[in-house]
Amino acid sequence: MAVKPQTDAVIIGMGWTGSILAKQLTDAGLNVVALERGPDRHTQPDFAYPRVVDAVEGSIHRKFLQPLNNETVTVRHNRSQAAVPMRRIGSFKPGTGVGGAGTHWSGCHFRAMPDDLRLRSHIEERFGLDLIPDDMLVQDYPFSWEEMEPHFDMFEKVCGTSGRAGVLNGQRREGGNPFEGSRSAEYPLGPNPDYLGSEMFTWAAREAGYNPYPIPASNASASYVNPYGCQMGPCNACGFCSDYGCLNYSKASPNVNILPVLRRRQGFELRANAQVLRINLSEDRSRATGVTYVDLETGEEHEQPAGLVLLCAYQLYNVHLMLLSGIGQPYDPVTGTGTVGRNYAYQNLNALKLHFDENTHHNTFIGIGGAGATIDDLNVGQLDMRDAGFIGGGILWARQPGSGPVRGIDPPPGAPSWGRGWKQGVRQGLLHSCEFEAQTGVMSYRDNYLSLDPTYRDAWGRPMLRMTFNWKPNEAAAGQWYVDKLRALIAPLNPLAVDGEAKAMDESWNTTSYQSTHNTGGAVMAATPEGGALNRYCQSWDVPNVFAPGANAFPQNHGYNPTGLVGALAYWTAEAITGQYLNDPGALVR
Amino acid sequence: MTHKPDPTPPLRDIRQTRLGRRGFLGSSAAALAGVAAFRPAHAQTPPATAEYTPEFFNAAQWAFVIAAADTLIPADEYGPSGSEAGVPVFLDRHMQTPYAQGSIWFREGPFDETLGRDFGYQGPLALADIVQTGIDQADAWCRDTRGAGFADLDEEARIAVLTALEKGEPEFARVSASRFFSDFWKELQVGYFADPSWGGNRDQAAWKGIGYPGVRADYSDWVTVREAYPLPPVDLAGNRG
Ligand SMILES: Cc1cc2nc3c(=O)[nH]c(=O)nc-3n(C[C@H](O)[C@H](O)[C@H](O)COP(=O)(O)OP(=O)(O)OC[C@H]3O[C@@H](n4cnc5c(N)ncnc54)[C@H](O)[C@@H]3O)c2cc1C
Ligand code: SF4
Q: Which positions fall inside the Glucose-methanol-choline oxidoreductase N-terminal domain (chain A) (predicted)?
């Protein structure tokens, strides 16, 4: 096996977290090698119009998503079952290629709520810890919201996030989210324009006494130059955000907002088509010595020695690589010992589709990935959990990321799914309907977890990552409660028909239909080594020159989309490395 | 008085629309010039179903595909039938792509189908095999139970057969009827609505029928306008529908 020259840091994966760490570490003068399993990608030619909006390539051949032929995860509902592979992309869509899922995300860009980050303390103070069921693992993040604020802010500035502040330096601002933590700055750009569904939601939410505000969206509402000098153009509402790269330099992505600077930098080397197989450890397992990877073009294996190993491979693959490499103790759900694989959680999304008459033009082919309207009046800090009957939080919102007939259109309820009347239903769904959703947090449980599969192997003979997950009564109750609130909210809009309902109380996780790529946990941050695999700086407790920022670090999932917090964690981790670790390499929390 | 947004456009919007339209046509002309420079791999207009000789399907399968495409997608005021739109041509071509041959899905064993519906297809076949095997099984089932191949049945009988397949009623040995139906029907929908360069959606008729503007992908002028989108579709080759 060829051994490459030693580098200061090796980064596994070139999505959001990898790009942020590469930028901050090369700023500090380190040499960085980035290994990305997928191909390199640029707006031109990879996302160039018109080819990028060919829905056969984008939505059917899934050109921009991870192909599952080499590696996938295995899935099951509980420990008594033998897991089977997720053979086709279903419930979630991991990314691949330079930019990662950060190229084909939608752009909803939330911070966390202050109470999301101290959920256990919040419950204890307001309701008493007896509210938490025995099998539920609710934890505080091991840092404060105030510590994270500058990093939330920086990530928004890098992304050109479009929104309206609700609380700025302690002052309430009309039209923003009145419940957010106090911000040190306004959003870099004002909100995106409202399509009809968003306007309807805003009106109905105000009627119901709520405080609707524009979803913070990293889809630029105007021209923008970020702090790195990277240029974004205004979003043209093309309707091809989710699952696609942006044709217009409008959606924030590592490719548009960070990589143009990195690529020109000495001390940064990007190797695409480089699949990392494992992290190598010293004999006493106290240090990582580098990684072993395969060059997918030649099939050759290489060793890349490095002083620091940064796991930026997405939540799932960060946990997978830790398990494969023997970093930390694997979680055992029977004894409750070990931390790697523990606290796996997901997101609970329930949608209602509103159908209107043919004078009401929703034109759902128009779309802006992250934009729309939402409310926080029912989210974690505002929620009486004892009264509501569940733990967590959530939001209601209107979103229209863009749809088209190849991507699939829901006809109105009762319309035929084929034959006569079917096309009319498609037309109705495309032009005269809109979608409102309830998105809620998902708590972590003793027996929802990640581990290595005993049977299935990937193309390199490695045991696959096995996911043991099912919905629990708490999440089903939350979904039903929020969907009830949503039904009440939309009633004054008088839609002709409403389709969809909350998951039933006993409904199992369906691994085949898309819900969201908001997987969390598995290698979580905690104040003590017993509480999670990482300390407060996303540093492995066991192997201190390994850091793993990503949604794997969330102790449980909150009501928002994850990436605002993921990006902030990457900046927080980078600051800990450059400000503390480099001066005194070793465990940053003892 | 309520402040409910009015779905019928107020005067202000109509005026904006007219202005918008002029501006819009101007900018689209520029966009079209860009589109014309692009040529997909098979840019020539694909042949009609009747002029096409299948490469993937045999004669019996081809007859099944045409009959099923026209039963699942009958002609009406919202567009032509499946075979008139070239959907069988799409399917024959699409079955030969790496995608249908299994390139993006995990297909290694062991194969364990005991966990049930929540876990999706767990057999060894690629999409193209599921479609082809399913057609053979369904056609044989028609001959056994109805005395004629699917294509020789009348419309009412075809609808009954497809309904039974969708419900998974016939017991097939290699691919379940419902798995075949859902994969096959999904493919036909893709063929009907995909860019015409893929073989179906001839003359963008399927897009016109449902009011889809194709690959225009620029609606900055229309996000806040509350009326029907005024422009016809455009395809990848830059043709207007
Ligand atoms: C369709 C879609 C829509 C989404 N919409 C939103 C949204 O609106 N708002 C929001 O907050 N979040 C959204 N997300 C989630 C968001 O994309 C992720 O939270 C974010 O990209 C995570 O960043 P990351 O750096 O952890 O991982 P990624 O951006 O996924 O990057 C990880 C990279 O690591 C690479 N990699 C993995 N394993 C290896 C290996 N062994 N060797 C080398 N490279 C490897 C991958 O190929 C990938 O490029 C969406 C996701 C999807 C798929
Ligand atoms: S909707 Fe806007 S941000 Fe999204 S891909 Fe299109 S132009 Fe880019």
A: 233-343
Average pLDDT over all residues of chain B: 86
Among B72, B77, B119, B166, most A C-beta atoms within 10 A, so best to mutate, is: B119
Query: Residue A151 catalytic?
Result: no
Domain layout of chain A by residue ranges: 2-581
Of the candidates A587, A352, A331, the one whose C-alpha atom is nearest the C-alpha of residue A480 is A352
ipTM of the complex: 0.96
CA of A402 from ligand 2 middle (Å) equals 9
Tens-place pLDDT, residues A546-589: 999 999 999 999 999 999 999 999 999 999 999 999 999 999 99
Please answer whether residues A72 and A64 qualify as being in contact, where contact means their C-beta atoms are separated by less than 8 angstroms: no
pLDDT in tens, A328-345: 999 999 999 999 999 999
Hey, what are A582's tokens? Answer: 């480099």
Q: Is the CB of A254 under 6 A from ligand 1?
A: no
CA of A299 vs chain B CAs: smallest distance (Å):
18
Tell me which amino acid residue A424 is.
Q
* Residue-wise DSSP of A204-262: HHHHTT---EEPPBSB-SS-EE-TTS-EE-----BS--TTS--TTS-B--HHHHTHHHH
Q: How far, in Å, are A262, A349, A395, A565, B231 from residue A560 at the CA level?
A: 30, 11, 7, 9, 37
Domain boundaries, chain B: 14-41+57-222
B102 in reach of chain A (CB within 8 A): yes
CATH number of this structure's domain A2-581, picked from the four choices 3.30.70.1030, 3.90.245.10, 3.50.50.60, 1.10.3720.10:
3.50.50.60
How far apart are the C-alpha atoms of A378 and A384, rounded to whole Å? Answer: 9
DSSP letter for each residue of A134-197: TTB-----SS-HHHHHHHHHHHHHHHT-B---SEETTEE-TTS-TTSPPBSS--SBPPPPP-HH
